[in-house]
Amino acid sequence: MQKIKAIRGMNDVLPQEALRWQYLEQISASLLARWGYQELRFPVLENTALFKRSIGEVTDIVEKEMYTFEDRNGDSLTLRPEGTACAVRAAEEHGLLYNQTHKLWYRGPMYRHERPQKGRYRQFHQLGVECFGYSGVDIELELIQFCQRLWQELSLNDHITLQINTLGAAKDRAEFGKALHAYLMPVKDQLDEDSKRRMDSNVLRILDSKDPSTQHLLQAAPVMGDFINPRDQAQFDELKASLYELGIAYIVNPALVRGLDYYNGLVFEFVTDKLGAQATVCAGGRYDQLAVKMGATATPAVGFAMGLERLLLLMQEVDVFPEALQRTADVYVAVVGGSSNRRVLALVEKWRDKLPNLRFLTHCGGGKYNSQMKKAFTAGARAAVIFDVDGTQEEVRVRLLEGIADTKTISVEKVVTWLLENLQ
Ligand code: ATP
Ligand code: MG
Questions:
Q1: Which end of the chain has fewer CB atoms within 10 angstroms, the N or the C?
Q2: Contact 141, 242 (CB under 8 A)
Q3: CA–CA separation, 163 vs 235, rounded Å?
Q4: What pLDDT score does 258 carry?
């Protein structure tokens, strides 16, 4: 019979790798808590219209990447390709947008039908932050500072560069779009196919084209920087000055336009040179018009999303996972020879209470001493406690598993003290 396999571009995470996920998830969640950000959870399925309206009809995501299907009622549903639209939908639906401020975060799987490759999958995971009700430069600065702090906690700061740009207001972009359109018109035939289509639908996205000859044509094109209104320009200048004062290095990238329609003002990306074409590990910006566009109360907003798979790949690449992550246990409790280990289980439970920082892995299923020790080493345990008879004994053997093997016999009462002396 043909075996059923996982869907292409959708990955399983095996236990060893799950430890790395947990490490990244714990560090980021605890940092968010320390900064006073609150978690928001929303479903993986939404009405298709939500994404069409928010992300924009003429974007890669909506044009060709969404997992859209009809459910049994004939409603068009879509597996969420990103979190911002969902966060705004949920916030509006529960009255969080009216005259309030919120600093929120979410984490979970996103779905896009892209060509799977290293750092690009069809189910991938994002951790995102969305701040509602803030229009100033202070929140923009805080978000960038937060990311920077996270890179530092993960020992990645030497490998990640901040790029920033400002998109100005919608009317600035319209003016710039006109100028770009006029500039490209005479050479329209030389553009790549996607860009040709975008001439009349979303001309700014041509700047995003990965096609070399299109990029070549763009070299002498008008630049967005010349079209930004004074207010947005002043906010951007203030941000740059503050970044400088905080010692946060950045590069202004005038070609940074972002793939989604809803941004205005600040846009930023954190990029690395270690992951080839999948260089962006975190991307965000301001989207003051999105709430209105979705029929909600006008709400200034700014946020970002980071790709967790890409961060994990980068962490692996530059080798920053702590060695202790290899371990699933600190103490392996071997039960050799006996049939009943009820008392063993009760004892280990007590030890867990007394030594909550140590992980105890109790052997189940019997077997020879040597094969049990093999399991202890595989788990990365630093010590073994060995019941030789059947758990009714008053003495156990204890053994350190690192360095020179040194087994000795001690009374059951002394185990906690011995572990404290040898492992803490
Ligand atoms: P890219 O230009 O690489 O396609 P994007 O602009 O489509 O990225 P966003 O929609 O801004 O990406 O999502 C934010 C982050 O989520 C990206 O910077 C990236 O780290 C991650 N990401 C996006 N798409 C994928 C994917 N298919 N697989 C893995 N990670 C992804
Ligand atoms: Mg993309």
A1: N
A2: yes
A3: 16
A4: 76
Residue-level pLDDT at 260 = 67
* Cβ-based neighbours of 374, under 8 Å, separated by 6 or more: none
Q: Which one-letter amino acid corresponds to residue 267? A: V
CA–CA distances in Å: residue 265 to residues 135, 233, 269, 302 = 10, 8, 14, 10
CA of residue 304 to ligand 2 center, whole Å: 14
Structure token pair of residue 209: 């084209």
Looking at residue 390, what is its pLDDT? 59
Low-confidence ranges of the chain (pLDDT < 70): 259-261, 338-340, 390-392
Q: Which atom of ligand 1 is nearest to the CA of 282?
A: 18
The whole-angstrom separation of Cα 156 and Cα 140 is 21
| Alpha carbon of 310 to ligand 1 centroid (Å) | 9
* CB distance 176 to 227 below 8 Å: yes
214-226 in b/e form (b: 16+ CB < 10 A) is bbebbeeebebee
Q: What is the pLDDT of residues 268-305, one digit of tens each?
A: 999 999 999 999 999 999 999 999 999 999 999 999 99
**Strand ranges (DSSP E) for 291-345?**
301-307, 331-335
Give residue ranges with CB within 6 A of ligand 1. 82, 112, 114, 119-121, 124, 126, 259, 278, 280-283, 305-307, 309-310
**What is the predicted pLDDT for the residue at 259?**
63
CA nearest to 306, candidates 133, 16, 108, 44: 108
The atom number, within ligand 1, closest to the CA of 311 reads 20
Best probe residue, ligand 1, of 64, 106, 124 (max atoms within 8 Å of C-beta): 124
Please tell me the predicted confidence (pLDDT) of residue 53. Answer: 92
For atom 5 of ligand 1, which residue has the closest CA? Answer: 259
